[in-house]
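Supplementary Methods S3. Input chains for the assembly prediction are listed below.
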Amino acid sequence: MTVKPKHQRLILVVLAVAAVIGAVLLAMWGLQDRAAYFFTPSDIAAGKAQPDRAMRLGGMVVKGSLKRDPDGLTIRFTVSDTHAETPVVFRGIAPDLFKEGNGVVAEGRLDANGLFVADNILAKHDERYMPPQMAGEAAAK
Amino acid sequence: MIAEAGLAALWLAAALSALQLALSFGLGGEQGREMRAVRAVALAQGLLTLFAFGALIAVFLNSDMSVLLVAENSHSQKPWIYKFAGAWGNHEGSMLLWVAVLALAGAVVALFERRLDERTLGATLGAQAALALGFFAFLLFASNPFERLNPAPLDGRGLNPLLQDPGLAFHPPTLYLGYVGLSVAFSLAVGGLIQGNVGPALARAMRPWVLAAWILLTLGITAGSYWAYYELGWGGWWFWDPVENASLMPWLAATALLHSVNVLAARGGLRAWTMMLALVAFSMSMAGTFLVRSGILTSVHAFAVDPTRGTFILALLALYIGGALTLFAFRIADVKEGAPFELVSREGGLVANNLLLSVILGIVFLGTLYPLIAEALSGEKLSVGPPYFDSVAGPMALVLASLMMIAPQLRWRRDAAPILPRLAPGVLVALAVLVGTFILTPGIGLLPRLGLAIGGGLLPASLQPLIGRSLRRTPLATWGMAIAHFGVATAILGMASDSAFTREQLAAARPGETVEVGPWLVEFRSVSPVAGPNWTALEGELRASKGSGVTVLKPQSRFFPSPPTTTNEAAIDTSWNGQLYAVLGEQDGQGRWQLRLWWKPFVTLIWLGGILIGLGGALALVGRMARERRQRIRGEEAFA
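Predicted structure tokens for the full assembly:
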């Protein structure tokens, strides 16, 4: 079937609109359960975070809280936003700028006991860099 | 002195862009006179901007610490290559590079474009001048690269050590050339829409720019991916970081445009759609710049956290994109209908390609901006990462790759011949691979498995358009298409192999101990201090063996005194079938060192694929330009 030019344009427009709507629906579906929410220790203390769901935790590494397990690979530390604290465990090589007293963003899940199990600690590229979420918190004080 | 000269050149160039905009409004009256004036103005503007960029490089090479930008981003004790490349390793310098490319592209169009009628060319150059004017204003009022610092400090703060890599000399300029090359496609679309002249001639003028920009974007993204892979020491090659997405989005739009502009040039079809894509492609470049430069998103690249600049670029963005879309809406009804075609035809395949690429673009765009939208609407802070992009964009990319097995073999306009025989080689190979993976490696994920199958099937299918032709007489553009599609198959295989077969080992080891990763036995020999030009490091020595083959890896943990930073330098051993990747971590209290090892089978295919795609594009570009030149010469001979 040869399509008339007038109809052809209509078909193209309909296809394009369908594609855009498809993309939006697909994206919304993906975003529903795949976006990681950003929480602070205060949010967790207030019970806003559900356990066992991908999320990010941001705050400062409490001085003196960093401990290393005997396996040499697992580290435990506490993240604080001055109002509340959350214990974190991480197995792996922490990024270069990860230090006590520095800001940190950890990706992972909260277990049933309130321990944050991090799969990843986000590297900060330089000492001036601060995630906007943290900068907002700092500015609010 | 040099800094002042550079600044003066910038102001002059900005004034010239305003003049060019004014001149191009009055074009088309007296034959040729204004056109000559516009050509001269565009050329002078390009050269002045280039001079300003040269001046910036000069102050960086001289380590002139009285220039604020140099003091903040450079250091006199730095290897010269990083002083040079450091000129664009910061906000102001990279924006100057951006504007320089924009102005030069305008000059090249003004000097060499001969396919278009004068009115359309005039309107195009007016649009290009309007773009340049806005970005000149942004540079001069919101990010002056030549600002002086009084008193001058004794030395500078230094360049972020992660950027101190040969990658910096190559990756940003390539990407910027690609981003800004798309500005010409944008201006041509605006010019064509203003003059109501949207047709094959416009498409032929647009095609080399789209192709060149797309090649550079492809190579820039490939290089950036490899740079992040070896420099960041995370073993990953793509992080779906907003800044990476900012380069991927124009690439996706340019890929779609590249295919549709061919339909317009060859068959006169898809007129409105091609114009839309040309507007969208450069809009994505500008949006990418906005995302990167405003530091609005949580990003490891966000080094310019400055709301004034963000607002300024946002206003420019709204002006240009909004203006172009308004123009499109008003003028598109006047664009003539294209030639008709059937659903099963080359045009039909290209429409499907465009729709799928647009869907992927939409998915990436929404995912990248969703955190902003969510925070504005509900105040919730969230991030969208690999789980979303992989699971939503990944399958769409595979659908696109499946389509690539057949679409390039279809005829223009209508194709009544049976499809199945032509589809058979690709489908048979894909099925064989699929069955093979189920038998050999039943445990891998669905997406990598499909990636291996479809990538494998696309390898032979991508070469089919060459079969049955005299290879010597096949146009270079067809060769280019086959090679680029073969490159896509190669890259997909690399990505699938990396996610299916990568082995990772994390260990705390004392010197003398052995760690196993995949087929490798890695002996941890020692750690010793070493010194570089502007850093000191602890260097581990690892002796990796697999069967009889032995290789030595030396991962480092480097310390840079200015600014004080530690970075990990991964050690990578490349063999024909993959890479062994080693990172040295910290020492614990008991003499053990953290070691992180990866064995990544065929990961190199990812970047090899990227290079093949770029190479295919380059062949097509050379072939098209040579053919046009021949035709022009023949035309001139016939005229004489």
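The CA atoms of residues 68 and 75 of chain A lie 4 Å apart. The two ends of chain A are 68 Å apart (CA to CA).
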